[in-house]
Each structure stands twice: as C-alpha cells, then as structure tokens.
Amino acid sequence: MWAKTVTGNFAKVIHGLNTNQLTDQVIQRSKRMILDTLGVGLLGTSTEVCHKVAQYSKIYSSDLSSTIWGHLDFRLPPLYAAFVNGVAVHSMDFDDTWHPATHPSGAVLPALIALSEAFPQKKKISGLDLLLAFNVGIEVQGRLLHFSREARNIPKRFHPPSVVGTMGSAAACAKLLALDQLECKNALAIAASYAGAPLANAATQIKPLHVGNAAKHGLEAACLALQGLQGNKQILDMESGMGAFYTDYSPQILPTLQSYPWLLDQQDVAIKSFPAHLATHWVADAASSVRRKLVESSENLFPLDKIEKVILKVPEVKYVNRPSPASEHEARHSFQFVACSALLDGSMSVQSFASENVHRPALRALLCKTQLEHPPDNTPSFDSLYCEVSVTLRDSSIVSDRCTTFYGHWRKPLKQKDLEKKFQSNALSILPAEAVEGIIETVHNLEKVEDCSVLSTFLSGQTARALPEKLRFL
Fold first, then answer.
1. Tens of pLDDT along 298-338?
2. How far apart are CA 343 and CA 363, in angstroms?
3. Which of 15, 231, 259, 442 is the most buried (most CB within 10 A)?
4. 3-state secondary structure of 336
5. How far apart are the C-alpha atoms of 411 and 414, rounded to whole Å?
6. Angle, to 10 degrees, between the axis of helix 127-145 and the axis of helix 109-116?
7. Cis-peptide, bond into residue 323, ω within 30° of zero
C-alpha cells in the first residue's frame, strides 16, 4: 500500500530503496562527487575557519570517535567529526553544485563517513551500503528542491544546504542506520527543526558552518529518531513544515519504488576548477578568453595601462556583486574580483584568493574600472545564465567574449583525468602520496569494497600497510 502523505511517501522510499536499484550512471556520477568532496574537504582542513571549529569541537568527547580528515591523531565524537569535516568541505566554496541550486555532497558524505565509523566492528558498512545511503541523501535534496520553482534560481534569502542539506543528511543517515518507516518520518521532522541559515552570512567565515551543521544535524536527527523521539508526521506536507522555506512550495508524491528514477541519473552536478561561487565560473571563462585576445593583439603583453573600462554582463545576484572585496571569502563571492583576476592572470586557481593576490595594486586598479550590467534575458539560474566580458581600450576599441557553459558544468563535465588531477592537487597538500592514491583506488572500486572504513584510514593519512584486512573487495 502506498503512503497517504508526502512525508509517509518519502519515508517509504528512503526505507525501501536498495542497492539493486542503483544504476551504473548513478554509481559513476556519485563516485565522482565523493572523490571531489573528499579532495576539497582535505584541502579545506588547512583553512582558518576549519582550524577554529576543530579547536572548538575538542571540548566534546565520547567513547565513540570518528576521523577528522587529514589528521592521524585527532578524532572526535561522530556528530562533531561530521561537523568539522562538513565545514572543511565548504570552507573554500570548492564543493560541487547541483540544479536546482544547492551543494549536495558536503552535507551528506561527512555525516555518513563519521557514522560508518561508529558501528560495531562486527557490523561492517560496505562501499555499496555507503553509495546507497549517499544517493538517498542526494535524492531527497533534489526532490525537495523540485517542489519549488523559486528554488531553481540562485537563492536570495537562505542558503539551500542549510535546509535541503540537513534533510538529505538525515535521510542518508536514516538509510545507513536501517530505520523503519516511522523512524524515517521522525528523522525528517527532527531535521526540519534544525534547518535554515540566512544568506546574509555568505562571503564570511560563517557560510561553511551551514554545510557542517547540515551534516551534523542530519546525523543527529537520525540518531534521535532511532531513540524514539517523535515529531510531526506530515512535516513535508505542510505550509508550516517544509513550506515555511518556500513561498511556492508544492509537495508531490515520489515515483513508485519499482524502477525508481533517480534524479542524479537525469541531472549531473557541476564540479568546480577553482574555489569560488559557481556563478563566477562563467565570468572566469569569458575573461580568460578576452585576455588571450588582448595579448595576441598587443605583442604578447597584457595592456593593463590601456584599459578604459571593463563591463560584465551577468545575472543580478546581489551577494556575488562585490566591487571591492576585502577578504578571501568576499573575493570568492565577487563577479568583479574573478573577472579582474582572470584578465590579469589568464586563469583562476586556489592561489588566486591568497591575501597577497586579493590586495595587489594592479587588481585593485582594474576593479575600479569594472562595472556590472544585468541584461533582462540573463536569469539567475545555474542552468541558463551566461556571462559576457567586454574590455574597452583607450583607443575606443572593444574586445569581448561570452561564456554560456564553462568546463566543469553538467553540460560540459570534467574528464575523469581532470577530476583526479584536481583531487590529487587538493589532497597532496594534506596527505602523503600513498594515502592519496589509496583514496582514489578505493573510491574507484567503491561498489566492490567490503568495509568502507578503509576510506577513513586513508583520510587520516595512514597508508595501505595499516589495513591489510580491510583492503578487500567483494
């Protein structure tokens, strides 16, 4: 019998989905998401915000503990491991982005890895178990986002991972804990009461906490539901439930479990090549192209002193309109900064956001000449926006280019070799080479891994010699 409410329907799907229903494409896409998330999370452990939340979390202790990525001798209770690692994933805004707009993986993967380490040794969590729970968490986020047309555009009021990410984390952890349908309903209800964070904290050190809290609170919601804590059994059906976050919320029953159609099969994610808001990636592509044209026509020199003005035609996204960013976090959320950096350097990288690059005089001079325009046809949607960069020189000549799809977008996905190159570049700054290669191999074979705790061993910096029995495939 099919559930009578949307909440009951979600609970039935969360409980009922099994590993046989994972398609090859969903497995391959989710493994790419997992590898990318681990890489940006490892790199994120070096950031100031991650150091601060890790130091704070040391006040908590319990008999159970989980790995803090990138640390051999630092463990925390699972809730706080999920929190710290979730913060690390989003600390540089380098994690994946989906459509409708959210960062799907960072709220789910840290919670699942932390939870998997809390199970008794005799209860091994396989790689396939992890993949199923991960995809349940991704699926729940996508389905909730599809209940609102408002959610299809770049957000204006709250940060989506703090809402749907919390719900997805709860669903994923509920799946890994094998909660029954009633417990799944309660996990969703509990998670909804943890959900939400204002977008005003974008471009500050607080924004990464939204993802860390989503991971932690989703895990906590599932654990509380397991203990019998009860909430509203129609949390997804009501205007005062999930409808509180969207003015046009219209919940729908999910497809039946037979031949279940995963959203990840239909819609891939975008994977970033540099750590900044996704909308700036169109800007970087167009600006880099303009630079090449300028250099070709100026005897292989960039004519900085000849530039009169720079016009960026972008969608209106207020929190990414920052004409004079004062910090790395503001720079990551600035159309103007990314355009000027790409014009000066020809490309963007992790180092583009180092303090000495954010404050260099040449960039500041170019920022003063940069203006935004918002064409009415340039809608603020990651599926349809474009960027046009036009540079006017003192002789009145104009050099311009437009980007409609950047490399890494779901319409032009990163090649596997480039995804692995990104992972290696991020992870090798934190872990020894053998551990980095161990993670790549484990994720590549994840559906065959017998005990996924091997991932945590590598994430702590240990090598294969530390796990002769764990490194087995089914």
1. 778 899 999 999 999 999 999 999 999 999 999 999 999 99
2. 9
3. 442
4. helix
5. 10
6. 150
7. no
